[in-house]
Description:
- The protein is α+β, with helices and mostly antiparallel strands.
- The strands form two sheets. Strands 1, 2, 3, 4 and 5 form a five-stranded mixed beta sheet that branches.
- About 8% of the residues have low confidence.
Amino acid sequence: MKIRKIDHVGIIVNDLPAAKAFFLEFGLEMLGEGKVEGEWVKRMERIIGLQDVKEETAIWRLSDSDANLEIVMLRTPDGDTNIELVKFNAPTNEIGIRHPLANTLGIQHIAFGVEDIEALVTKLTKKGAELIGEISNYENAYKLCYVRGPEGIILELAEEIK
């Protein structure tokens, strides 16, 4: 028995088109988008422990009929990491979008190794992302920063200094 890899990271969003556009602008690639309908919705309810699920995500283009579940699946250019974007239409989340601090318990950000961190931050902030703090040099090994995108999603960017 062994763990082979992290298959994907799932991110729940309210504004699926904005989140999708953010990650595409960031440089991820579309694997596909589509809808999950019928028996698979009932299976998802049993897997995730919610009832009366209606989801929008992006994964594979199926049909344009009224689906309970839509999925958007993205990946890094090297093909090693996938991001799944999901929008639940029901049940509703009463808490809403939160903007956690760096020391908030739980999963808080996704880290990416990047090239030309300054140009990437400029590109993303022009599209509405927020640089949290500043780009910092860590022991002449990495340039690091946090960027907040739509829905409060935080990305850590790390550029190796050569």
